[in-house]
Amino acid sequence: MVPKIIIHGGAWDIPKPLHQPHLSGIKSALKIGQKILLNTDDPVQAVLAIIKNLEDNPVFDAGKGSFLNKMGEVEMDAAIMVGSDLSVGAVAAIQNVQNPIEVANLVRTKTEHLLLVGKGASGFAKEQGVAFIKTEDMLIGREKNRFKKLAGQDKVNIKSFFETKKPSDTVGAVVINSRGEIVAGTSTGGTPYKMAGRVGDCPIVGAGFFADDLIAGVACTGWGEGILKVQLAREAIDRIKLGNAPHKAASGAVDYMRSRVAGDGGIILIDKKGEVGFAFNTPFMPVGVATGEKIDFVHLGIG
Ligand code: ASP
Questions:
Q1: Alpha-carbon span 191 to 206, nearest angstrom
Q2: What pLDDT score does 140 carry?
Q3: Does the beta carbon of 192 sit less than 6 angstroms from any atom of ligand 1?
């Protein structure tokens, strides 16, 4: 099988001046993942490298550049799932680490658990030798200003962020190697001005992500509460199982979310045959796809 990668940079109404930074961020992460995948044929390493690169890029709401919560702090969620053995590692509401995806993978490989949250997750990261990053060093001006603006409002409707010109640049990746091994990963700073301790879909298996070599790998983005309610990743997986082609499975799942909970967001996926699919119901969702040595495309979801 020819190795394949699909990645996304969040589903939302991206303002024009941010189109180019999103496209170049997706392109460089895709290239990094492609190089690793071609050299090692290891889909875990490829997903980790892609997500780390996107977490380090302040354009995206993951790692550095994450939204601030109501307390003016950064709490991040991330997850990785390996489709050969269904192993999962995830962290939620983690603080003071540069790369939550790295800690998620340590949960997968070094513990008997699937998900660590809050102080437990940050403490585990420290124990594993992951560098401590001060909250101030995670904050960027754009998000500090957004926080100030939101904190000055009487009422903040978080769901509306996914419907109007508001941000949501969560990141995700799905990779398949030459042996048909599939890995999916996600990372996010969540939603702007969320309550402290709020956890979205990104670290929840079956909601924000899923990977099974026998079926497909999926990563989701969008309004986390809606994604959780309909178990969006699982919804797409079930549609693949019913025989839908990847694009149809992805769009069917997004339409289902819209019709059941008025949810907005998007999905990327690769099925066991190595075919990619994606769908979203927001104006844009930056997507990049690579097949073997070729970059198939990088665009804002609309080719
Ligand atoms: N799904 C993420 C969350 O609700 C946000 C996003 O995808 O942009 O935490």
A1: 19
A2: 74
A3: no
